[in-house]
Amino acid sequence: MQHLNSRPYFKEGQKHEVLSGWFIYFIMDCAISDMSILINFSLLLKKKQMSGQVITCEINSKISITISAIDDRVDLDQPIYAINWFNLKRSWLYVLYSKLAYPHVIKVGGSPLFKGKLIEKLEGENSYDREVLLIVGYLNADSFLKMVSNKWFQIKSFLRLKAVREFNFGFARRIDNKQQPEASTPYRGNKVYLIHVMQDMTDDKPLFNNDLLELKTKEGTLFFSGKKAAVIGQTRKGGKLKNNPFFVERLLVWEGEDAKQLKQFVKSPEYLQIKSMSGKNNLYLFDRLV
Predict the structure, then answer these.
(1) Which of 84, 108, 253, 274 could form a disulfide with 223 if both were Cys (CB 3.0 to 4.6 A apart)?
(2) CB count in 10 Å sphere of residue 118
(3) First-residue to last-residue Cα distance in the chain
(4) CATH code, 70-288
(5) What is the reported pTM?
(6) For residue 187, is it left (φ>0), alpha (ψ between -120 and 50) or beta?
(7) Which whole-number Å values give the CA distances from 24 to 55, 65, 235, 241, in the listed order?
(8) CA angle (205, 211, 212) in 5-degree steps
(9) CB-side exposure of 92: number of CA atoms within 13 Å?
């Protein structure tokens, strides 16, 4: 089987087992009733469109899956970050899934950058609340597809389906100075993290044009900043593309010594300026697990 990140891209008519039906339902959070059936993709097309890069995978005559860059500035050949924002149904089952899936992530050069669990909500609309955040860096979209094309990964992903709820998933590109996925090292600290989910952006040019994202005070230091880059969707024959929910337009993760300091940080003039760039701000304190 030709590697997904080889060039040139696959020509129409070639047969490649890329993803099974398990991953389709894993990513779309649909029910799976028969673990004995694995539906193989027969075609992978990667093409440029006016709206940006698009990867379309046809699994059969009725269903296809599409990864779509949100605009022309997004290059899916560059480092990309999978943002998993969700609630848990069965915590123990998700722990088991994570341990089983981890070797597959590492094998394709991926790196779990952050995994954290909710401590306290500070502000924001309840409908956007989630209790777990997982950020995983990949070298590019191809490396992600290479991982999920593995049959054993697909089977293990069934556990994730049964373990989570309100699963919000999509891809981001990094907007701070750290452009490459960082090496995965065990977390041994006792820091507290401020998670800031931003929506309805008004004008975020200052995030790129001044030192706000390099802000480092005794209260908080930027750990990760991401901008929505791509979404995943499903199309049924004769129907329209239906994208998986992904409402995170910007994601900021700040590291602090304790909860009290981060709460002070959020009230600072500098941080109020950051909040003013978004029409909707959801802020949380998280404990870091990975």
Answers:
(1) 253
(2) 16
(3) 33
(4) 3.30.70.100
(5) 0.78
(6) beta
(7) 14, 7, 11, 14
(8) 70
(9) 0
pLDDT above 60 for 195: yes
Could you tell me if 243 and 275 are in contact, meaning their C-beta atoms sit under 8 angstroms apart? Answer: no
Instruction: Return the pLDDT at 96.
Output: 97
- Token pair 């199309």 in the structure block, residue: 235
